[in-house]
Design goal:
The strands form two sheets. This protein has a two-stranded antiparallel sheet with strand order 1-2. It has a two-stranded antiparallel ribbon with strand order 3-4. The chain is globular. It is mostly helical. It has one domain: Farnesyl Diphosphate Synthase, CATH 1.10.600.10. The protein has 16 helices and four strands. 69% of the residues lie in helices and 4% in strands. The two termini are 40 Å apart. Helix 1 packs across helix 4, helix 4 packs antiparallel against helix 8 and helix 8 crosses helix 9.
Length: 362
Amino acid sequence: MVIGKIHERPYTGLDDPKIAIETILKERAGDIDVIMLEMTSCIEPPEYREAVEHLVIAGGKRARAVISLLSCEAVGGEPKFALPAAVSCEFMHTGSLVHDDLVDSNMTRRGRESVHMKWDLPTAVLTGDILLAMGTRAMLNILSHVATFTPDNFNVKMTSKNAFDNSLDILSMFTDAWIALCQGKETDTLLKKKKITSEEDVFKMMYQKTGVLYEISAKSGATAGNGSTEEVKGLGDYGKLMGLAFQIKDDILGLVADEAEFGKHVGADIREGKKTIMVVHALNNGGDKDAIFEALGNEDATPNQIISAIESIKKSGSIDYAKKMAVSLGERAKKSLDILSPSDARNNLLDLADYLVDKREW
């Protein structure tokens, strides 16, 4: 039984989740940002600290961290006890972005120069590594103590055996997640070299690269909140499905979005050779293979070649196919929360699902 605050409104969904959820993300992410910068303030030399804090300061939605906090609250726990897990998740995610940009030769990230572009390759490698280490340190802070993290004061109390066991479980989750992230990135690289691949391979890669961190965010929060086995599983399923839905939506926007709003070059995934659900579906369902392969993975592809490849993907119905898939995954994610008792936190998780897969953006 969840001993939490009874919801103030029956869940009916929001006509426009954007404003409500972005307000929640901003409010919840404030503590995360302060704690992350407090932890990185000890890094020396100062020039290296600047590189480490480069993407931390750039921000991001912090959706994964907020999912961890909301998951803890949704099972009746105090969100502050999920802060170490939430901070770990953001450090790990940010470190993976630094390495992703290095591997993919991305020039920008979060509206800024990528770390390897602003500094150099060795600095980028070490920056990604230390961000991962910072994530581990955040979890270790509660292996011998329960951290009552607040933005201006790191007070601690002696932990109970239950909290200690929970901390070990959460640390194990994040270790497994990092292994999966590395495997997913390598799989992504290998799939780019294959001419034909399967949707199954793409889904496995998406889970390892994106879904697993959303899954662990939710599971770690529920574990920190002493959720039942069923609640932890339900929230883990929610995170996994949401991560997959979000990745598909992001890939769709990579082909159809307005560049100014999207913040990335439309068609960059084509030039990079990324095997998305849409590319694989188009190649297997009547897409113009010549047009697609002329641009796919071709760093020297002309704008017209990129456009022709995207048009072929559209005509094959692959974008509509991916949209339906993302919406279906989002609905399944929400269904996974049926295990939870009604609460404001559960409502917020449901609204967050609609926000992350907002169909009006495509």
